[in-house]
Design a protein that fits this description.
By secondary structure, the chain is α+β, with helices and mostly antiparallel strands. The protein has 17 helices and ten strands. The strands form three sheets. A four-stranded antiparallel β-sheet has the order 1-2-3-4, covered by helices on one side.
Length: about 550
């Protein structure tokens, strides 16, 4: 009797396992069905688009304006015909390899394999019905008198056996057809791969037959693209010339290097703004607080720019590198803000380079406010030209930043003096316009500094070098060095320490002077400077030795 009171655990677990296998198999067929339908639909859309493109090509072939490309369009027409035919072949192949009903394929189901979904649904309904009846009769059996239970017992026994038979039929069906379904899915995949492989072979043969014509077309397209690029470059240059003509008549605002006035600064509280009187003094931005002078930020190595994202109008930021600090100030008008930014920028440049009156330009492209320099060539450079100088190598051009690198004050004076006379030293040649390409600028810079194409050479470089030392003329000395004078000839190394200046000594050091070199009397340049009471040169040499 215990056998009829509850289901057998073995059959319950088996039924659950077979139901999961059936669901998994049904899901596999559903995935393949969806993929095949998508491939079929996309194939039809692709063929339709190719046919429309082919028809449009047929119309354009007869157009007189495209008579030059008639051969090209005819080749494309033939290729499109082949591609359309191959794609239709793929769609047909796909419609033959799927044995389940997939909508647009309209294929019939294999007679040996009845639809899995229908069998599964029928078995599931029968099992649920038997379970419900079993529970009902068990309850009825418990309530009835044991003397009148024989009929109910027989019906209950039959229902339990029917339930077991249904489970057995389900197991038998799955065991016979699950492996068949897996093989079927693999066969479908192989058929799909074979159809695509057939299509690629046909396309490859068609491509080989038209390869020469396609190469000619590719060459013609490349030539057309090159001509278009040339035309666009020409138009760009013409546009830049027109912009330069327009800028010639633009009024440039005149700003003063010295600036003072009222600005708004943050107070002790973050949200508090206070109006203070600011002015610039000794590369410092200072404000007055009840007649007390309070240094606010150092401007020697600083940058000032407009703060466009700030919530308040006319806000600008000042960022100082040494010491690191960042502040935000508010001006009372847009013009006032621009004047402050200009004054702070000029103060930073003056603190770094030590110049106040001249407006310096790049030695190679004449761009204003150069930020870089070449110490050994003695020129100031803009950002773009400094990048080209770096490509020459540090042995030819040693690039330094005027704002970020620390440059010795003597080197600064020497640099500015050489830059002021760089046209007489290096010559100009034919300077390319600003809108020229990077290649043209690089060619010009290499010719100017590497090949020394335009320098004015002196007749007797060694004699000119000695004369330059005695005259303390670093430009004349540099010109003699470019003409071929050697720092180790005629005692010029120690002569500069005796009768020259700090800048002449610095120039010879840049040219390769060995500070510890000794003359015929076994004196070093430092000892010569000491005997000649050249205190500035002594201090400079000692500083270099200890650095």
């Amino acid at each position: 009797m215990s056998y009829f009171k509850e289901d057998s655990p073995f059959f319950r677990d088996s039924l659950k396992q077979y139901e999961e296998s059936l669901l998994e198999l049904t899901g596999t067929f559903k995935i393949w069905s969806d993929k095949a339908a998508i491939a079929h639909n996309k194939g039809e859309e692709y063929c339709k688009a190719l046919r429309e493109f082919y028809n449009s090509i047929e119309e354009k072939i007869h157009c007189e304006a495209l008579s030059t490309y008639k051969v090209f369009l005819q080749h494309i027409s033939e290729i499109m015909q082949t591609v359309v035919a191959c794609n239709e072949g793929i769609v047909y192949s796909l419609s033959q390899v799927f044995p389940v009903e997939l909508g647009p394929f309209n294929t019939t189901v294999n007679s040996e394999l009845p639809p899995l979904k229908k069998i599964y649904e029928k078995l599931q309904k029968d099992v649920e019905m038997v379970k419900a009846q079993t529970i009902t009769y068990k309850k009825a059996y418990a309530k009835k008198n044991p003397k009148n239970t024989e009929e109910h017992f027989l019906r209950l026994h039959n229902l339990e056996k029917q339930y077991e038979l249904l489970r057995f039929d389900l197991y038998n069906f799955l065991s016979n057809h699950s492996f068949t379904g897996q093989l079927l899915a693999v066969e479908q995949l192989l058929a799909l791969i074979y159809s695509i492989w057939s299509f690629t072979n046909i396309s490859q043969e068609q491509y080989k037959s038209k390869e020469k014509d396609l190469n000619k077309i590719a060459e013609r397209v490349a030539q057309s693209r090159k001509g278009l690029a040339t035309m666009q470059e020409s138009l760009r240059k013409e546009r830049e010339v027109e912009e330069m003509k327009i800028n010639m008549f633009t009024k440039i605002p005149q700003y003063k290097d010295e600036k003072s006035g009222y600005l708004w600064k943050h107070g002790n509280l973050i949200t508090e703004w206070k109006r203070r009187f600011f002015y610039i003094k000794n590369s410092q931005l200072i404000y007055l607080r009840e007649e007390e002078q309070v240094p606010y930020i150092a401007l020697t190595m600083s940058k000032a720019y407009e703060s466009k994202d700030h919530e308040n109008l006319f806000a600008f930021e000042i960022v100082s590198v040494s010491p690191q600090k960042k502040v935000v100030l508010l001006a009372e008008s847009d013009a006032e803000m621009k004047e402050w930014i200009y004054a702070i920028k000029k103060c930073s440049e003056q603190g770094l380079l030590g110049y106040t009156e001249n407006e310096y330009t790049c030695a190679d492209c004449l761009a204003s406010n150069p930020d870089w320099c070449s110490l050994n060539l003695g020129v100031l450079l803009c950002t773009n030209c400094s990048g080209i100088h770096r490509s020459l190598g540090s042995h030819l051009s040693k690039i330094k930043s005027l704002q970020l690198d620390i440059i010795d004050p003597v080197q600064k004076e020497l640099l500015l003096e050489l830059h002021n006379n760089h046209q007489n030293i290096w010559g100009e040649g034919f300077r390319p316009p600003r809108y020229s390409s990077v290649e043209d600028k690089e060619e010009y810079i290499r010719g100017k500094y590497q090949h020394k194409s335009w320098i004015i050479k002196v007749e007797n470089p060694a004699q000119a070098l000695v004369a330059g030392i005695k005259e303390k003329n670093v430009c004349k000395m540099f010109q003699a060095l470019l003409s071929g004078a050697k720092v180790n000839e005629n005692g010029v190394l120690h002569l500069s320490a005796k009768v020259g200046s700090v800048k002449t000594v610095a120039l010879l050091i840049n040219a390769g002077w060995e500070i510890e070199a000794k003359n015929s009397e076994a004196f070093t340049p430092l000892e010569i400077a000491l005997l000649a009471n050249q205190n500035e040169i002594v201090e400079y040499i000692v500083k270099l030795i200890n650095s």
